Amino acid sequence: MSPGLGLAVLFVLIGAQVTRVAAPRRGAYLVLLLLSAAGVASGEAWAAETRLGGPALGALHPLPDVIAIAGFEVIGAVLTPRRRRRVP
User: What is the pLDDT along the chain (88 residues), one digit of tens a residue?
Assistant: First the structure.
């Protein structure tokens, strides 16, 4: 596995976990992972297209990735309904 792919997976997992801690009842964990992966992919596309990626960390550009992950997670939190707790 390439180091860039390993870092991308790490960014996706951290983005999903931060969202899970910040908004625990918003969406299923799989949805959070998908939104984080979309954020990393779009952040890298943005950095490659605009060449304003900031400092690179290996093959990744952390600043656009974090901004895109946050944007996708906020949009996902707004669009998905709040889960209710099941009462036994």
Answer: 677 788 888 888 888 888 888 877 777 888 888 989 998 888 888 888 887 766 776 677 788 888 888 898 888 888 877 666 666 6
Whether residue 53 contacts residue 64, with contact meaning beta carbons closer than 8 Å, is answered with yes
pTM of the model: 0.77
Residue by residue, DSSP assigns 1-59 as: --HHHHHHHHHHHHHHHHHHHHSTTBS-HHHHHHHHHHHHHHHHHHHHHHS---S-BTT
Q: Could you tell me the two tokens for 82?
A: 């709040």
